[in-house]
Predict the 3D structure of the following.
Amino acid sequence: MKNTKRKKEAGFTLIEILVVVIIIGFIASLIAPNIMGRFERSKEEIAKAQVEMLSSGVMSFKVDMNRYPAKLDELIQSKEPKWRGPYLSKQTLPKDPWDRDYIFKAPGEHGAFDLYSLGPDGILGEKSIKNW
C-alpha cells in the first residue's frame, strides 16, 4: 500500500506545470520590454559618442587644414601637404548603430558643420542624433 502511494506522489500534476509556465510567462512579459528599451537607449548612447568623436576629428582637421572637410572620408586620408591625419583613431568611418552612414554637411544649416545620424526611424526628427 505504501509503495503505490509513493508512485502517485512522485510527479507534478498538469495543473502545477501550467501554473509554473504561466508565472514564468508573466515574469518574462514584465522584463522583456524593459530589456528592449535599454537596448535601444544603448544604441542612442553609442551614436552620441560617435557623433562627438567624429566632430572632434572634423575640428582637428579644421585646425590643420584651415577648412572643414568636404566629406568625412578626408578624416582618414588625403593627399594635401598640410594634412596631418588620420583624425580618427581606428582609421575607419563608423556606421551608426542602425547600420547607416553618418550624414555630414559643411557648411551646415545649424552651425559651421552638421553631423548627424537619422536614428532608429531613419528620418531626420526628434530621434535623430545630431551635433547641434
In short: The chain has two helices and three strands. The radius of gyration is 27 Å. Strands lie at 103-105, 114-117, 129-130. The domain at 44-130 is CATH 3.30.700.10 (Glycoprotein, Type 4 Pilin).
